[in-house]
Structures are given as structure tokens and as C-alpha cells.
Automatic annotation (TrEMBL):
Domain of life assignment: Eukaryota
Protein name: AB-hydrolase YheT
UniProt record similarity statement: Belongs to the AB hydrolase superfamily. AB hydrolase 4 family.
Catalytic residue list: S206, D349, H376
Length: 464
């Protein structure tokens, strides 16, 4: 009955109103009536979304001169967002047991203001070759971390920069891939130690969304994230590859741009990788082969580098890019997610093809919202009247920040999270580890410093 009602509602929605896909059989959660209250009610994910994420029940109309997915996506790359949504960070460096280093960017900076230790923390995973400087990251963190008396949520945020991205030093042969979740896992361990009373809320963009969705499915009710939102998640990397490699236009525009962006990132870190990779190892050979590529398509880069050196543990090295895509796809983990997850995709996204609608309908913890327009991480719209902070020369805003901020407030401030069984942390030989998974661990090391969020990386296409 629930599926029939959902289908009926979606059919008769106005074309610009997002389609919402809810589970057939809901999971029920404990929900505080007010922030900090001990008085709770039992409710469903659908009720939370429909009551508190009202932007998803209203129209999203793209700005008239960016009507389709290609131009929305293109504007992510060519638009000037340097003068809006300014965010500054304090960077902390974590050394991991495998020798790698994570660059964790916190906002607001400590010298800007002091927040209570139980302040909700947004944990961000960025896109393919991005970092904390990306405009799509700042577009949400700027209002989320603005003080309440100035119209924001007053939250804290931490961006997990992929190894080798955004100036994060490379100290091991391991970089990152769309399926590598241990760096997120250890970052959350660090936050749990630093702020044990703070609710942790995930926010993922594109490849980072895939990592968060995989993490949630792998952890189930042991997730350190109380809830999460994933935007532009690629879900099925096999189907996405078939789309962008199988069409001449997509291959020449998207596959080539993504492949060359990854190659530029690898070149930036090549000297360090060549020193830390063991001679004649699969990583060393893959590095030499990848650096010999001229203008690779995405599948060429992934076949040469990511499928071989995407991780330093089994099942790597893999036989092909297709094998990597199959392993890394997050759609296969949707059924195991056990914390509330809001997913937002655009139907005209030129990079993401298939959406896990059937999987969402079978899991009471997941809601999928699909807008008709928005492209890949675009969702640009005209600013509301009186909005003096709108972005770029044309005064645009990203519509998607509205439902995401509503979701943060609804979950970070009201969810009890009683279904989770988060593992204990303890100290072992100078490392902080998690009981039952002692192969992972971290310790903070010197370095880091101030990071200005509008500073990108030379030679890389931003926005994807």
C-alpha cells in the first residue's frame, strides 16, 4: 500500500517538485520533541522528512539560463565562487597505522569562536579530486557553521581530505579510491575521542558520497555517524562507466576531463609516491604506467592506476577498471544501512546513471529525493529577493543546501540514535584503536595550520 501511495504522489507532483522515494516498510526511530529534551516520540523517516525537510516538498526550478544537466554541471567548473561562502579552517594531521596521513580541516577556526563540546559536527567527504576549498562544500558549511544569532545552525564541521588532495601530505603508497572507507572510519574515531558528546552527521559529495554510503552499509548499527546526507552519489560505478565511455560526447567531455584531473592529481604526488612505494611493487609499476599516459579517459586511468593501487590490501590489485567499479559501488550496501540517510540526486546528472530506487524502498532507514534538474552537484537557482550573499557574478545559489540544512537540524538536534552500538576506543602502543578492529589506529602529528577555503589546487578542474 505504501509503495502504491508513493507512486501516486510522485505521478501527480508538479514537474519541478522532487520525486521522493520512501521505504515500503518504515523503520521507527526515537525522536526528541525539542532539542535536548528527554521527552521522545516514535516516528518514521518519512515523517521526519515531510515535517522538517519542507524544501523537498516544494519546487526546485533551475535558473533559466542553466536549464539542463550539462550546463548546470559545466557551471560548477567555470563559475566564480571565490567571493562567496568564505570558510576558513584549522587543519589537523593524523598519522595512521599504515603510515598514511590524513588532512582534517575544522571550521570554525579555534581563534574565531569557542563552541560547546556537544555541538553537532558535520563530517564532509568531498568529490573526486577536490578538498575543503570546493565551492559545493563551502556552500553548505558557510550557513551551517554560521552562529545561530546570525542566521546559521551554529555547528562545527570537519572535512576529510582524501590522501594527496588539497595539500594533504602523502606519506605512504596508499592514496584513495571510491571504495576505500577506512580513512573515513579512522577520522570518525578521532572525532569520537576529541568530542565524545557531539553528534556526528555525515555529508558526502559525488565520490565522497559513495564512500559515506559504503561506510554506513558496512557498519550497520555500529556507525559513528548518527545520520548522513549524500549528494550526487554515483551508486553504480559500472553503469556510470558504461554511460560515459559508451557515448562519444560523454567520453570526450566527461570521461576525458575526469581522467585528466586524476592524472594531474597523481603527477602532483608522483615524487613522493615514488619514494614511499617499494621498488617493483604493484604500486610502483602502476605509478610508472599511469605517468606514461598522455590524455587518459577515466577508464584508462582507473585501469592503469586505481584498480591496481586503489588500496594496499585485498582485493587489490584488481584485474581491471570494471572489477574496481563493481567492488567500489555503494548501491550494493544500501540494504545494510541502519541510520537515517537522505540521498539527493538529479535526474539530468550527466555522470550518474542508475539510482538504487528498489534498494531504497526495501530499507526503512533511507530516503531518496530526485530532482528533475540540477546536473552533477549543481542545483543552481536564482537567489531569493534580498539575498546579498548569492554566489558569482550572476548571483546564483545552490538550491540543495536548503533541504540539507533542514535535514541537519532535524537529525542532529532530535535523533536519539538508540539503535547504534558504537565500538569502544582505547590506547594501544601509542595508537588510538577501536576494540575488535585493532589493525586500524591513529595518532595526531605536528603540522597543519590555517587553511583558507577559497584556495584551490593549480591545474585541477574544480567543482566535480
Amino acid at each position: 500500500m505504501g509503495a502504491i501511495l508513493s507512486l501516486f504522489v510522485n505521478i501527480f507532483r508538479p514537474i519541478y517538485t522532487p520525486n521522493l522515494y520512501f521505504p515500503i516498510k518504515p523503520a521507527y526511530i526515537q525522536y526528541r520533541k525539542t532539542r535536548g529534551s528527554e521527552e521522545c516520540t516514535t516516528t518514521s523517516l518519512r515523517d521526519v522528512v515531510e515535517r522538517h525537510c519542507t524544501s523537498l516538498l516544494k519546487e526546485y526550478r533551475p535558473v533559466w539560463w542553466l536549464p539542463g544537466g550539462h550546463v548546470q554541471t559545466g557551471y560548477c567548473v567555470i563559475g566564480d565562487f571565490s567571493k562567496v561562502d568564505k570558510v576558513e579552517y584549522d587543519r589537523k594531521l593524523l598519522r595512521l597505522k599504515d603510515g598514511g596521513t590524513l588532512g582534517l580541516d575544522f571550521t570554525p577556526p579555534a581563534n574565531e569562536r569557542t563552541l560547546p563540546n556537544d555541538t553537532p559536527i558535520i563530517v564532509v567527504m568531498h568529490g573526486l579530486t577536490g578538498g575543503s576549498h570546493e565551492a559545493y562544500v563551502r556552500s553548505i558549511l558557510a550557513p551551517a557553521c554560521t552562529p545561530v544569532d546570525k542566521g546559521g545552525l551554529g555547528y562545527r564541521a570537519m572535512v576529510v581530505n582524501f590522501r594527496g588532495c588539497a595539500g594533504t601530505p602523502v606519506t605512504s603508497p596508499q592514496l584513495y579510491s571510491g571504495g576505500h572507507t577506512d580513512d573515513l572510519r579512522q577520522s570518525l574515531m578521532y572525532l569520537s575521542k576529541l568530542y565524545p558528546e557531539a553528534p556526528l552527521i555525515g555529508l558526502g559529495f559525488s565520490l565522497g558520497a559513495n564512500v559515506i554510503a559504503r561506510y554506513l552499509g558496512q557498519e550497520g548499527n555500529k556507525s559513528r555517524l548518527l545520520s548522513a546526507a549524500v549528494l550526487g552519489c554515483p551508486w553504480d560505478l559500472v553503469k556510470n562507466s558504461e554511460r560515459i565511455e559508451g557515448d562519444l560526447f560523454y567520453r570526450e567531455v566527461y570521461s576525458k576531463a575526469l581522467g585528466q584531473n586524476l592524472l594531474q592529481m597523481l603527477r602532483t604526488n608522483a615524487a613522493t609516491l615514488s619514494r614511499v612505494a617499494a621498488p617493483h611493487s604493484p604500486t610502483a609499476q602502476a605509478l610508472a604506467n599511469a605517468l606514461a599516459l598522455k590524455k587518459p579517459y577515466l577508464i584508462d586511468f582507473d585501469a592503469t592506476w586505481t584498480s591496481v593501487a586503489g588500496a594496499t590490501y585485498p582485493p587489490f590489485p584488481l584485474d581491471s577498471a570494471e572489477a574496481y567499479y563493481k567492488w567500489a559501488s555503494s548501491a550494493q550496501f544500501v540494504h545494510d544501512i541502519r541510520v537515517p540517510l537522505l540521498c539527493i540526486n538529479a535526474a539530468d546528472d550527466p555522470i550518474v546513471r542508475d539510482l538504487p530506487i528498489d534498494e531504497v524502498r526495501k530499507n526503512g532507514w533511507v530516503c531518496l529525493a530526485v530532482t528533475q534538474h540540477g546536473g552533477h552537484l549543481g542545483w543552481f537557482e536564482s537567489p531569493e529577493r534580498g539575498d546579498r550573499e548569492a554566489g558569482g557574478a550572476f548571483g546564483l545559489r545552490r538550491w540543495v543546501r536548503k533541504p540539507v540544512l533542514e535535514w541537519f537540524r532535524a537529525t542532529a538536534e532530535h535523533l536519539v540514535g538508540e539503535q547504534r552500538e558504537v565500538p569502544e576506543l582505547y590506547e594501544q602502543d601509542g595508537w588510538t584503536v577501536e576494540r575488535g578492529r585493532e589493525s586500524l589506529g591513529f595518532r595526531e602529528v605536528e603540522g597543519g595550520g590555517k587553511v583558507v577555503g577559497v584556495e584551490g589546487e593549480g591545474g585541477l578542474l574544480s567543482g566535480l
